[in-house]
Amino acid sequence: MIRNCMVLALASLFLFSCKHSAYMRKTYVDLKKSVNEAEVSILNDTVKVVFGNNVLFDFGSARIKAEVFPAFKRFSDALNKHPETEILVCGYTDTVGGEGTNINLSQKRADSAKAMLVYNNVDDRRIFTWGLGFKNPVASNTTEEGRQQNRRVEFVILHNYKN
Fold first, then answer.
1. Which of 47, 49, 71, 128 is close enough to 37 for a disulfide, judged by CB 3.0 to 4.6 Å?
2. Which residue has the higher pLDDT, 152 or 142?
3. DSSP string spanning 13-58?
4. Which of 18, 85, 15, 83 minimizes the C-alpha distance to 49?
5. How far apart are CA 144 and CA 107, in angstroms?
6. CATH 1.20.190.20 for domain 23-159
7. How far apart are CA 111 and CA 90, in angstroms?
8. What start and end residues bound the annotated signal peptide (predicted)?
9. Which helix (H) or strand (E) holds 78?
């Protein structure tokens, strides 16, 4: 009896996992098709969307550039096709300025990106923000090109396992 229950539990867990994996693969494919301006990747059941270097923000600014608005609209539309996901918006800066200033700016960048998603009808209850300052650089901060790459927002798309 116990063995049968364990087999049933493992089978249920496997099917649950497969369902969510398939959902996230579909989310990945839809985002990849919708947002040419961003790098879209998937690892296990997590999709990550990163807009190219210097696409979103100027130096010292948390204002999203107007030329990115159409891409954000397509991004938002794709997210709205997948309501069982949640979005973690991580803001980053380069190393110019103090740590406190950069933490504040990175949080403002994440909040600005969230506001743009909400403006485009993504439910704000699905979106969480986190300002990380100059942590986790993707390029060297010794060159202007590297600093531009580090001024970014990453969107981490996760399946809401409550659904």
1. 71
2. 142
3. HHHHHHHHHHHHHHHHHHHHHH-TTEEEEEETTEEEEEEPTTSS--
4. 85
5. 22
6. no
7. 9
8. 1-22
9. helix 69-80
Q: What is the pLDDT of residue 52?
A: 66
Nearest to 93 by CA among 39, 127, 131: 131
Q: How many residues comprise the chain?
A: 163
Residue with tokens 């969480």: 128
Opening angle at CA 37, ends 73 and 83, nearest 5: 45
- Model confidence at 45, pLDDT cuts 50, 70, 90, reads confident
Inter-residue contact 110 to 51 (CB < 8 Å): no
- Token reading at 28: 């990945």
Question: Residue 78 — very low, low, confident or very high, per pLDDT cuts 50/70/90?
Answer: very high
Helices and strands of the chain, counted as H and E runs: 4, 5
Inter-CA distances, 65 with 20, 95, 130, Å: 34, 21, 20
Query: Residues 10-31, buried b or exposed e (16+ Cβ, 10 A)?
Result: eeeeeeeeeebeebbeebbebb
Measured distance CA(95)–CA(140) in Å, rounded:
10
